[in-house]
Amino acid sequence: MTEMTDAPAKNPWLKRLPLIAIVAAALAGAFFLRDYLSFETLADHREALLAFRDANYLLTVLAFIAIYVVIVAFSLPGATVATLTGGFLFATFPGALFNVTAATIGACLIFQAARLGLGDKLSEKLEGSGGVVQKIKAGIDANQWEMLFLIRLVPAVPFFVANLVPAFVGVPLHRFAISTFLGIIPGAVVYTSVGAGLGEVFARGETPNLGIIFEPHILLPILGLCALAALPIVLKALRGKKGL
Q: With a threshold of 0.85, does the pTM exceed it?
């Protein structure tokens, strides 16, 4: 009886079910939800959304955060549109706070699913490997905070990649959550502020400038934050060379 009771718990596929569900939902969402979670959908329903918000503000906040969490947790298309919607409905503040909170919760869910499904085994394999792979793992372990902030601050790193990689190298949940919340604030504030100005964009019949984060007056301060995050890594490397 004991062996039969313990057997399901030892089944590796049970641990992988959440990750499999996320992958399946992401694939389904890419095919079926792409046309719905879009800027055009937001533009078409903007008046109804504003009316519902005015009549049910708290419910709108809770529903918005819940939908945003699902989008991030299942890697569905539309995360950028959701961020714009947060600004459109709630202004830059508290819209940015709602966006960052929802994105962090969703990121933690997919992080946990990835770590439960594959992360622990991959981390053990990396730890026991030799050569370059082991050195990379050791470098990440020695600079976890700095690396976590870097992958969040660099605009070129896809959000889902920044959610999965830490799970595969054994990053603790609390470090992941804190670095995610703080690290995505700059980008979230930029896109939330764009969303806050969508009323005028809609009135002109235009589309928002989603490439604004790569404009010099936005990108340079973010790169400055990246440099600050990377500075301790550089200093450690220089000290290590001097020690040799």
A: no
